[in-house]
Amino acid sequence: MSGPRINSFFLGNSSGVNFSIILSPRDAEAGKFQPANCSGSKRAGDWNLDVTPGVDTSKVTVSLTRTLELCLPNATECCPSPLCVVETLQVLACRGSVVLAQLLIQAEIFANSSFTGNVSENATIIPNQAFKPLGSCPCDLTAGACDVRCCCDLECTPDLQQLFSGSCFTGVFGGDVNPPYDQLCSSQSMEYTPEWFPFLCVHSSLDNTPFLGYFYHGSTSTPKVPSFKIPLQTSPGKPFTGYREGDPIITEEDEYFTVPQQSLAGQCVGNAPVAYLHNFDVKCLTNLESYKEGLPHDVRINSGTADFIQQNVVYRAITDRGKFITESENLLAAEVLCQNVTFAEHYKFIWKDKNIEQVNVTVFLGSLCDGEILTQRFTVEFLNLNSTNGEELFEDPGYQVGKPVRAANLNASDPLGSLNIWQPAGRGLCASATSRPVLFGVDSYSGCILEVDINEDCSFLRGNVTEKLNALIQATHIGKRDNSSYSDLNDWVEIIRLDPFRSNVSTGGLKGFCPDIPANLNIRIIFAKVGAVQGIPQQQILAVQISYSTVIWQFQCGLGCRNTLSLLPITASVQFIEVPAQPPPPVTRYQKLYEEFDCNRNEVCWPQLLYPLTRFYTGEPYSQSLAKGLFLAFLVLLAAITSNPWFSKLWKR
């Protein structure tokens, strides 16, 4: 036991049982315990024995009656040392002279660490931990007691240390607070000792150690946790200066205005912020179990001038659910659970300069039942306040990335044109493929598959493929800017068309073989940044070229050649090429001379003549390359000296 009180239990009927306690029952000379004597009492020395009888169990309590305070000067009846009590006790339960049970107790009790005397004015001096270890024994965790396996604990007696002398804590925690460091000459702890270590090692006492003196008393800053709060206002009093292109739209609660959008992985993100002047049209799949409502439509939006505008919401019912329900499981009518949900949301932001003037929302509602998969649609469109008759006259005239490229057919009475690429669906056949507009700044590549018969005429096949490719380009001109007017011819650039190459190779009457099939449509759009309006870069289309790449179609015979149809993939690619708005200045004479020493433009690089001696060379350790370089320089110098005529004369003498 290590405390002044211990409890135990006697099992059985305690009537007629005599309990007694014996102090030091071991014979000091023989080293054996004395025979049990039932004639003892319930008090022995400073120990008392109390018994609380019960029905079938009796509680036996052994307690110490003396004080455990450390002795003050000239004090008695106290503990002269921290280890106050070291005694052996024996508790006996006898019925008459027959011993029924006995309990052996080894008591090692330390003095209390609390101090009740007068407080001394001598304060404990704490050393500067930057230059001297604050605690010489970190494993000494218990005051006034011996910590097991802590060999540096001064409160552990030699007898106790022998019990765990072979399992002491090592390292700094075990008391080695100032270990020898690797740079010390007497240290052998390094697994790999370089050759130069004896010349550059440190001779110093352990008081001068790199483990001390590295404390930096500087200001600390709390880390900033990113959140979906508004990053545009640094202080509540700062006025809101309006939106710029790409800034997230903010609500009245200083949070992002979110609409579900597609991530880079193709999945829909429900809390995606809406960016200013960025249009999008996304579709998201959901079912009744995973359906979640979006942002409430009563949330007010910051207009850009610290004013808040309310959304104008119009609710409509879906009449044709087949356009949105893509899959349905056959369930019994009694088991089907339906709910009124949002099928589509269309947002129109009316803007002017850097502010939002109005927000119109059209919400389409319908019934979604359990077991059905819903394709939700979310669109966001930004319209300028000066738009008239559906034709958007932007104050921001340049193209923005992700917006459709404007096309026109100026040779027809209806100038409205289109520039599209394929959007295959189902099996990917051209017969069922739809189209989508070409988006500015977005390189695209799409295609579809055309079924060709083995007896197909080559001329007819070329015309059929060309017709399908030309159907994507229903235009003669492309708008230079996003606000190009149909009435001004200078706002448009004519599409340059390059006819497909014809090699005039004769098929010789072979079936299933056709050369020079224009199966690839290449659309190259050249644009440049011509300036900026209110800090927004203005991008303008300079030229558009359309060309064809030809392939050789050959009928692919399947297993047994039973199928007379073969598949011909035809593709369309769009590439945006950025060029300087103005031609670069001519190359000066200095630049021409400098190009001779430019390592990126010449095979011979004179500045890298001593490349192995620089830090950029990583083929071998820098010390080895430096040593080899110096040795080579020594040989060159030695050769130069020995080849001199005066050296030969001196040698002959």
Automatic annotation (TrEMBL):
The chain crosses the membrane at residues 629-647. Residues 241-384, 398-579 form the Tectonic-1-3 domain. One of its GO terms (biological process) is protein localization to ciliary transition zone. Keywords: Cilium biogenesis/degradation, Glycoprotein, Membrane, Signal, Transmembrane, Transmembrane helix. Residues 112-221 form the Tectonic-1-3 N-terminal domain. It holds the Pfam family TCTN_DUF1619. InterPro entries: TCTN1-3, TCTN1-3_dom, TCTN1-3_N. One of its GO terms (cellular component) is MKS complex. Part of the tectonic-like complex (also named B9 complex). Belongs to the tectonic family. This is TECT2 protein. It comes from Pycnonotus jocosus (Red-whiskered bulbul). The lineage of its organism: Eukaryota, Metazoa, Chordata, Craniata, Vertebrata. The gene is Tctn2.
